[in-house]
Write a structure and sequence with these properties.
By secondary structure, the chain is an alpha/beta fold. The protein contains 18 helices and 14 strands. It folds into two domains: 194 residues, NAD(P)-binding Rossmann-like Domain (Rossmann fold); 139 residues, Rossmann fold (3-Layer(aba) Sandwich). The structure holds uridine-5'-diphosphate-glucuronic acid.
């Protein structure tokens, strides 16, 4: 079986590499020639745990190659996955221009027996519209929709051992082909669910939006905890033990970020309205998440007695979550910029040493080490839940700071433990003794 994957963003690249690990012959295509040259030289455009090793292994085995010639790459493919970006437009709708550009480029050369699978997150109706678009060009091929549920930082694991695989198909040929592609996962009893095209498209948005709602919900419960004397971590444990609720995505924090939840919640709401349906819960979640960042800024200002100017603030982590160097829609952008604008002297330590972050916070100082980042600090603000922060030596940090204040937007520590080291500890959804 020959597979072509169009787009070498994190979805396309992870999928392509993992399909080659399944044993298929895979060609990954991108119109960014420099990116392709780098990949041909085994240099990855993103950091993703475990990806480099699999890429090198499968390139050496001759199963994985990279090209910028899209038209050529689809000539002999049995199955073509489109995994290009669908960024949000100014009005919140999904920009489908990259999807259609790819479809137009492959139309004249694609093997007519191939199945064309959309993997990009696209509004309901898009896969069928792509089929019709190709039909108008005289190209009649089978189409399918296969959403991805890959978390950045855990994408290889998520691909290799997913909770489920959703396959939107409309004929037997597409069903058989996709069943063959995902056959290696049957060995692990992975649920493979076949649906219609529209159901598969909506499943992706509904899943991301539901997780976003869950986070928004626990963040509002955290606000309530702070004023009523409850502890949000314990409330989350109590809720999560109910199997109907589950314990995942109940960690209160600075609000969700990244390239998916912010974009997909807006897009869902936008296209639902076009169908005449209102996503009021999702809309409120978006509003609540935007407000969350302002709340976090107020929390930091309050903890610092509104006295930020000239203060040295040590930031722990700026990426939108741990195990990635991705800064897209990171809550840190609004939070750190508010501190910079208020005249703080910012120093940042982020274990990813994100280059994107350095271009965003130009006036900040950067540390190579979490302890150096604390030297002479008036306050520490934890924004990202990097595992290494959980294990820091608080006594060492206490020796280095000027003033012992930790504002922890991820609830990494036990309150009693931090206070025992002589710190004032202001976290999320838990009592704070000023
Ligand atoms: C998300 C989904 O989890 C994937 O299933 C999906 O495939 C992907 O979007 C996508 O559409 O491509 P991702 O954006 O990589 O994956 O990150 P998540 O781990 O879901 O985290 C999203 C945000 O929620 C982060 O800012 C994270 O810090 C925040 N979060 C997550 C919380 O604030 N609390 C939690 O309990 C969990």
């Amino acid at each position: 079986m020959k597979i072509t994957v169009v787009g070498t963003g994190y979805v396309g690249l992870v999928s392509g590499v993992c399909f080659s690990e399944f044993g298929f012959n895979v060609t990954c295509v991108d119109n960014n020639e420099q990116k392709i040259k780098n990949l041909q030289n085994k240099q990855l455009p993103i950091y993703e745990e475990g990806l480099e090793k699999l890429l090198i292994k499968n390139m050496q085995a001759g199963r994985l190659s990279f090209t910028s010639d899209l038209a050529e790459s689809v000539k002999e493919a049995d199955i073509v996955f489109i995994a290009v970006g669908t960024p949000a437009k100014n009005d919140g709708s999904a920009d489908l221009s990259y999807v259609y550009a790819a479809v137009d480029q492959l139309a004249s050369t694609i093997n007519r027996d191939a199945v064309l699978v959309i993997k990009s997150t696209v509004p309901v109706g898009t896969t069928r519209a792509v089929k019709n678009h190709l039909h108008e060009k005289g190209v009649d091929i089978s189409v399918a929709f296969n959403p991805e549920f890959l978390r950045e930082g855990a994408a290889v694991d998520d691909f290799m051992s997913p909770d489920r695989v959703i396959l939107g198909v409309e004929n037997k040929k597409a069903k058989d082909m996709l069943r063959a592609v995902y056959r290696p996962l049957y060995a692990f009893n992975t649920p493979i669910v076949f649906t219609g095209l529209e159901t598969a498209e909506l499943s992706k948005y509904a899943s991301n939006a539901f997780l976003a709602v869950k986070i928004g919900f626990i963040n509002e419960i955290a606000d309530l905890c702070e004023v009523c004397g409850a502890d949000v971590k314990e409330v989350a444990i109590a809720m999560g033990l109910d199997k109907r609720i589950g314990d995942k995505f109940l960690q209160a924090g600075p609000g969700y970020g990244g390239s998916c939840f912010p974009k997909d919640t807006l897009a869902l709401s936008f296209f639902a309205k076009k169908f005449g349906a209102n996503m009021t819960i999702v809309d409120k979640t978006v509003e609540s998440n935007n407000f969350r960042r302002k709340k976090m800024i107020k929390k930091i200002f309050d903890a610092c007695d509104n006295n930020i100017k000239g203060k040295k603030i040590s930031i722990f982590g700026v990426t939108f979550k741990a195990n990635t160097d991705d800064m897209r829609e990171s809550p840190s952008i609004e939070i750190v910029n508010a501190l910079i604008n208020a005249g703080a002297d910012i120093s940042i330590y982020d274990p990813s040493f994100s280059e994107q972050a350095k271009t965003i916070f130009k006036s900040a100082n950067w540390s190579n080490d979490v302890y150096d980042n604390c030297n002479n600090a008036d306050a520490i603000v934890i924004i990202t839940d990097w595992p290494e922060f959980r294990a820091v030596n608080l006594s060492e940090i206490r020796k280095r700071v000027k003033y012992p204040l930790i504002i922890d937007l991820r609830n990494l520590y036990k309150v009693s433990e931090v206070e025992a080291h002589g710190f004032k500890y202001c976290s999320v959804g838990r009592a704070y003794k000023k």
